[in-house]
Amino acid sequence: MANIKPLSEELQKIACEELNEVPSRIPEDLAALRQWLQLQPHLKVRDDDQFLVQFLRGCKYSLEKAKEKIDLFYSLKSRYPEMFNTTDVKEEEFRKFHRLGCFQILPKPLHETGPRIAFIRYNYSTKDYNIEDLTKLIVAMVELSIIHDPYICINGMVYIVDIGSASPSHFLQITPNYCKKSVSFIEKSMPLRIKSLYFINNSTAAQQAFRILIPLFSEKLQKRIRFIGHNLEELYSEIPIKYLPKEYGGELPSLESITAEYEKTWDENHTFFQENAQYGTDETLRRGKPLDIDGLFGVGGSFRKINVD
Question: Which parts of the sequence belong to the CRAL-TRIO domain (predicted)?
Fold first, then answer.
């Protein structure tokens, strides 16, 4: 029997209907994935049932896609640890950045049992921090959530990006190279469904700047991107105020208080992140040619698939 957290009846129904999950077959699927991992000398990964089942769910139980996603997940973590591999959540600089409230996952899922909603804000000084610090925070929080939060595990996330909080100096940090790496990690390697991506409080110039990023996303996700100006009524029509924080006219607590409450989550899970230091890839041990991570990105941000045996 697989050692995974039980789902509510409603979430289990969604997992079966939308993710092709067959509860009785999970042990067999996990065994097949674990057997493949044992034959990959270059991969050292977290291999508990709860972690691996999320990659199966994130790939709708396609074993080949799960293999590729796991390989890419750890390959990118090893190649770009400054962005994707947090190992010390007790570090004071990490905590100071978190307290700025640049990223937070809201406590109430959409429509009570749907996807989680997360806010991204650029309210950090570019003199002290950069876009990679924000990315590292997002990845750490989402990585923890895909294991512990059943709503994220099954229904994914809705992201709301407050462009109005970004200054010209923030835009200068969002380089094409950064975009290729971050989009590839978040969309291609994380076992997570991105249900919607809203850009709010955007000026015309800011909207044009962020539209440059859109071709980097998959065609499926491009259709889920929405630009909303300063009139948030359009947002409310899709995400009612009962699911939004106080700063945005919502009925939930403020992002400041939600951020403060999350501090104890870091404390409770610091060993999880310490363990991240032992996981990754060793390209010298990969069967066949070593993986050229930089060469994975094609012209215009297109992504070349990893070959997995």
Answer: 129-256
